[in-house]
Q: What sequence folds into this?
């Protein structure tokens, strides 16, 4: 299942889910300095009470301060550059590494205490670290790797200390702490993995919903285009052209501007189908549409309203000469030779031009006069342009 293009490729569903998870992770990780500060202060107080030297505490807290500043600067950097498919994995690894550094400094705090008589302090450090890891496991459920690393670099070193103390001194209290730490880690991490699965499932559901909505939008756009566009040439069809013409009429009435309506009928098109087949005729019509579009402005509208019949709406033109100039440009473009699938084809066209308001103030009147002018051009010879007959009492300039 592929998604939108990124850097010339496509993003799979799994990659999009991964990207969303990383963005959720960074959103939760942003501004978590209060938790880091709170944990550091509590552990620092315990170390001070337990008899850790001022020099040792200064180095330990200084390293955490450096790590915290690095986290702040890195989060600002991420905010500035944004998280994309291309850079998300590298940013995630860096952020996890910075968080793991601080967690490791927490984890070795128990080794900074004197070797004897610190059971109470070790217990408090265990309570603080277990609480911090629990908060991390719940808060960063979208990224299980992060809280697993937090546990590995903080609680496992402390659990090892408990085991060493229990073995070296035979102190059953440390044996109890060691067993409790293992049980706690097993229970909390198992629960955390269930929460993570729920969060990740929710992200996947959300991504699927976004894909379905995007697909519905694409389908709606395609259906809308099918309803308003000629399926062969991609030009406007009668429905869209009529809507554009009515909009232009309303604008012209408000602003007292003029516009032109061109009716165009191709010369010698039927023999092309008879001689070369409809496939060649279809390609020729596409080429005709392209040339006509090249002759008008983006604000103008070109439509196919019949087999070889086209109409052009020229909005807000200066005068009749401007409209006749565009008509002549189209006539010359279509009179030039077409090379279609190895065949040199000559067609040409006849153009009828009607002006608003000189030749009518409604869609029906303008269409009638433009069609009549085009019919007169066909009668008078091929490859011809004719302006609609003047309407009594109207200025056609």
A:
């Amino acid at each position: 299942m592929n998604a939108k293009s990124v850097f010339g490729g496509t993003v799979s569903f799994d990659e999009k889910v991964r990207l969303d998870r990383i963005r959720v992770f960074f959103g939760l990780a942003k501004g978590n300095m209060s938790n880091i500060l709170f944990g550091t202060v509590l552990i620092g107080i315990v170390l001070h009470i337990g008899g850790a030297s001022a020099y040792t505490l200064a180095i330990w807290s200084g390293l955490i301060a450096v790590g915290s500043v690095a986290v702040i600067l890195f989060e600002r950097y991420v905010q500035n550059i944004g998280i994309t498919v291309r850079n998300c994995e590298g940013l995630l690894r860096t952020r996890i590494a910075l968080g793991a550094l601080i967690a490791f400094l927490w984890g070795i705090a128990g080794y900074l205490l004197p070797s004897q008589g610190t059971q109470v302090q070790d217990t408090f450090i265990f309570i603080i670290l277990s609480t911090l890891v629990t908060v991390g496991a719940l808060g960063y459920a979208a990224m299980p790797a992060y809280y697993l690393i937090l546990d590995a670099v903080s609680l496992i070193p402390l659990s090892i200390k408990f085991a060493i103390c229990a073995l070296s001194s035979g102190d059953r209290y440390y044996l109890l702490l060691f067993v409790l730490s293992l049980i706690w880690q097993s229970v909390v991490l198992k629960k955390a993995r269930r929460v993570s699965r729920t969060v990740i499932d929710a992200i996947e559901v959300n991504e699927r919903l976004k894909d379905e909505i995007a697909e519905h939008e694409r389908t709606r756009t395609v259906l809308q285009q099918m309803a308003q566009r000629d399926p062969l040439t991609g030009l406007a069809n009668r429905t869209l052209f009529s809507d554009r013409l009515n909009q232009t009429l309303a604008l012209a009435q408000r602003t007292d501007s003029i516009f032109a309506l061109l009716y165009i009928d191709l010369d010698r098109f039927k023999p092309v189908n008879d001689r070369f087949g409809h496939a060649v005729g279809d390609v020729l019509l596409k080429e005709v549409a392209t040339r006509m579009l090249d002759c008008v402005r983006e604000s103008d509208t070109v439509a196919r309203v019949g087999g070889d019949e086209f109409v052009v709406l020229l909005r807000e033109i200066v005068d009749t000469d401007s409209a006749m100039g565009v008509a002549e440009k189209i006539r010359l473009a279509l009179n030039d030779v077409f090379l279609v699938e190895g065949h040199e084809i000559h067609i040409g066209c006849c153009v009828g031009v009607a002006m608003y308001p000189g030749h009518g103030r409604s869609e029906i009147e303008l269409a009638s006069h433009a069609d009549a002018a085009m019919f007169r051009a066909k009668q008078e010879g091929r490859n011809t342009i004719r302006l609609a007959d003047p309407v009594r009492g109207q200025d056609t300039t």
About this structure: Confidence is low (pLDDT under 50) at residues 1-8. Strands lie at 2-6, 9-12, 259-266, 301-304, 309-314, 338-340, 343-345, 349-356, 385-387. Residues 229 and 237 are 5 Å apart (CA to CA). Residues 172-228 form the longest helix (57 residues).
